[in-house]
């Protein structure tokens, strides 16, 4: 392709009078990398690169020789000017981001929000689905803070510090022991220990606010008044990638819920003591008023969560400042009042048994199970209105993932509490320990791991059968070349392993169903017996008693080990850049979606990346009138598709889409059918001028787009050969590697498809007139 001098637009934004922009000469390929990221030099195949626009977090790069390509002499080129959009630091830059692993339940429940089935004309049911997921996310925040209260308030300040035998083994608790000073009173110990979960809440609030400012505060291309009715997907709505209002409200509500949980843990024990006969009447009245205030605060939090969902049809910049500031401050004031109330002098009050944690954790577990069941009914009703045979679990993927999020939260809470109890008490049994429900929840881990082991064996058997079936297909595909049984087996095995990705829904279904049943059994067992599994099975058959004791011991240690591994991995990632990148890969898929259900989930990088891409594409096409190939690999293809939906029609007419190794249909289309289902992808095909998709049968992530009708063959090129040569050839004198998900640009088909897309773009279309947007960042 020829390079050309850039035509400067006239004052009205169009071409100069009497001139037509030479769109056939200005061509750009905007490369978007995938999972794990890469460097600009690797993407552009040139170590000398310059940053065209952007910052240290995400930026667009060019080769140094192409820095001013549009304004250079009109020398002919072999292809378009390549640009690389590098966004890997959004997920794997700072070492502290490794600690986001501890927020895994919040990220998982946020994914459940976006997994709803496709529905047309069921707006109320769709809103109910979102409301149920938001309430489930709120319960996870309460569960996390309740677990922190269990460790700090119950196990440490109430039980261990109040027991001379336990406090004597930990000198740092000496000043909290009864009779050792002013802090020895039970209520004051609780008030002091409340600083730990309160500080955790403050940290979560700060991280949520800071990451929103750094990632998600970028305004999309459309102005504040832009509105656009959605078609088969909401991804083309102006406000989809700008969830400021909902994010601020959820942040305030979850922060207030966390502080109210701490306040209830501090004040409820004192109020329960004051209600006993013979206690001071004034304190009893104050306790009742405090509990009523806490209940009213909890009602206000639930109302805020239920009141408003996402505002996507317009760019909603309202931050609800009074609510966002007032709700957390009111909850903080109630926490301070609870601490003052609990610290009041009560000479006869002594800490005994446990704080009322069994009721709290039991109510949370029951509420989460009920929410998931109702969510499944709603998802099933939505799926029935517009059945999609490719949708994962027939539309029940969202409830299944929400169940896993609740299970992760319960497991982490139970494991940390049990390990803290063992560390404080050792084996001397001087304190009652955590609520029995948490011990029951930890005990279900061994049978669940056994089930997962069975599922892994099933996958291995399935892979073996697939490899046998692929053996003949490989021999037929490379017919005429010298046979090599080892080479054939290797290619067939890689194809079989890549095909296992499509078995993910079945694994999720079995795991979620088993988790729901085991969780219900744990709740029933703890409620009915009031004892740990080992103690409850004491009179049963020796085999059953031994199994219960083994599950109880193993579950506690396994969860504790998992927690230690997470912390260790996070510390290693703080020092090791390669480890930081590895951990960042885990979030590339999970944090693509905005934080619509949980504000404390890891931040959404797409709310920065998609506006970056749309601004770059719109400004470059508007200034040059040229043609642009938007080239996305793996997760980059999802960003590219999201950016294409956000483009104005004038820019979209100059854009061709090239995807390779793309999970658009194989993962996103199946798991997120409301946004990437068949109708949505077919609409994307109609929106862009042309689209080509490359994939390999050895790729475990990428796959065909599978558009209906004639659109499918037009977009999906037949599967690329991998390896390019079976044996040694003149073009490949050394053995060709099996590339799988990588190096698509090394295949000759890549350059061929790029040339074909550029040829299909219509260079005769005049340059679009200015809409008042800024010019190109270059």
UniProtKB/TrEMBL annotation:
Q: What is this protein called?
A: Integral membrane protein
Keyword field: Membrane, Transmembrane, Transmembrane helix
Q: Where is this region: Disordered?
A: 1-29, 726-745
User: Which residue ranges traverse the bilayer?
Assistant: 128-148, 190-209, 252-271, 283-305, 326-344, 364-383, 395-417, 437-460, 507-530, 550-570
Q: Which domain of life is it from?
A: Bacteria
Q: Which InterPro entries match?
A: AB_hydrolase_fold
């Amino acid at each position: 392709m020829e390079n050309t001098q850039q035509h400067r637009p006239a004052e009205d934004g169009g071409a100069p009078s009497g001139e037509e922009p030479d769109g056939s000469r200005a061509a750009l390929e905007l490369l978007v990398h995938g999972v794990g990221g890469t460097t600009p030099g690797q993407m552009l195949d040139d170590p000398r690169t310059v940053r065209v626009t952007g910052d240290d977090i995400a930026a667009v790069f060019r080769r140094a020789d192409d820095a001013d390509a549009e304004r250079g002499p009109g020398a002919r080129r072999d292809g378009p000017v390549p640009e690389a959009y590098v966004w890997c630091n959004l997920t794997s830059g700072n070492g502290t981001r490794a600690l986001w692993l501890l927020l895994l339940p919040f990220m998982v429940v946020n994914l459940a929000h976006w997994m709803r089935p496709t529905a047309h004309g069921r707006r109320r049911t769709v809103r109910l689905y979102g409301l149920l997921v938001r309430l489930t996310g709120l319960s996870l925040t309460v569960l996390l803070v309740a677990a922190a209260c269990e460790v700090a308030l119950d196990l440490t300040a109430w039980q261990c510090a109040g027991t001379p035998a336990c406090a004597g083994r930990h000198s740092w608790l000496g000043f909290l022991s009864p009779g050792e000073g002013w802090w020895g009173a039970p209520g004051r110990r609780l008030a002091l220990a409340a600083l730990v979960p309160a500080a955790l809440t403050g940290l979560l609030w700060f991280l949520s606010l800071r990451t929103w400012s750094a990632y998600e505060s970028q305004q999309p291309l459309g102005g504040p008044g832009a509105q656009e009715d959605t078609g088969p997907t909401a991804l083309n709505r102006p406000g989809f990638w700008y969830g400021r209002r909902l994010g601020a409200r959820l942040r305030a509500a979850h922060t207030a819920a966390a502080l109210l949980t701490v306040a209830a843990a501090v004040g409820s024990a004192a109020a329960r003591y004051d209600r006993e006969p013979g206690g001071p009447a004034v304190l009893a009245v104050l306790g009742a008023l405090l509990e009523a205030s806490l209940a009213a605060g909890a009602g206000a939090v639930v109302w805020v969560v239920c009141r408003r969902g996402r505002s996507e049809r317009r760019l909603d910049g309202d931050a609800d400042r009074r609510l966002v500031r007032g709700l957390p401050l009111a909850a903080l004031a109630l926490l301070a009042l609870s601490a003052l109330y609990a610290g009041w002098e009560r000479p006869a009050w002594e800490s005994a048994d446990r704080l009322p944690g069994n009721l709290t954790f039991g109510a949370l577990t029951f509420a989460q199970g009920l929410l998931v069941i109702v969510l499944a009914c709603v998802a099933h009703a939505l799926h029935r209105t517009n059945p999609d045979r490719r949708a994962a679990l027939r539309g029940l993927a969202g409830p299944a993932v929400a169940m896993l999020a609740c299970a992760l939260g319960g497991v982490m809470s139970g494991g940390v509490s049990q390990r803290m109890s063992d560390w404080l008490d050792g084996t001397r049994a001087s304190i009652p320990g955590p609520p029995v429900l948490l011990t029951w929840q930890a005990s279900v881990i061994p049978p669940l791991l056994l089930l997962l082991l069975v599922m892994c064996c099933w996958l291995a058997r399935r892979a073996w059968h697939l490899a046998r079936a692929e053996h003949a297909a490989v021999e037929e595909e490379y017919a005429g070349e010298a046979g090599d049984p080892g080479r054939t087996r290797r290619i067939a095995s890689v194809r079989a392993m890549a095909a296992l990705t499509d078995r993910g829904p079945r694994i999720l279904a079995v795991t979620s169903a088993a988790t729901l049943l085991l969780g219900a059994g744990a709740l029933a067992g703890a409620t009915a017996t009031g004892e740990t599994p080992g103690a409850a099975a004491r009179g049963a058959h020796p085999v059953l008693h031994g199994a219960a004791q083994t599950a109880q011991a193993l579950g506690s240690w396994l969860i504790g080990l998992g927690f230690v591994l997470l912390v260790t991995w996070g510390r290693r990632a703080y020092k090791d850049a390669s480890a930081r990148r590895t951990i960042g890969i885990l979030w590339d898929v999970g944090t693509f979606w905005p934080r619509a259900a949980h504000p404390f989930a890891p931040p959404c990088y797409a709310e920065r990346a998609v506006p970056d891409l749309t601004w770059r594409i719109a400004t470059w096409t508007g200034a040059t009138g040229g043609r642009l190939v938007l080239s996305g690999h793996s997760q980059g293809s999802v960003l590219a598709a999201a950016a294409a939906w956000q483009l104005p029609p004038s820019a979209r007419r100059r854009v061709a889409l090239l995807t390779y190794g793309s999970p658009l249909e194989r993962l996103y289309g199946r798991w997120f059918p409301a946004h990437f289902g068949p109708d949505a992808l077919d609409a994307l095909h109609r929106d862009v001028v042309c689209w080509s998709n490359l994939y390999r049968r050895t790729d475990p992530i990428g796959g065909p787009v599978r558009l209906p009708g004639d659109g499918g063959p037009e977009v999906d090129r037949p599967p690329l050969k991998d390896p390019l040569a079976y044996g040694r050839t003149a073009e490949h004198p050394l053995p060709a590697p099996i590339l799988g998900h990588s190096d698509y640009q090394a295949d000759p088909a890549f350059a061929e498809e790029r040339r074909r897309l550029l040829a299909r773009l219509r260079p005769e279309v005049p340059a679009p007139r200015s809409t008042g947007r800024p010019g190109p960042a270059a």
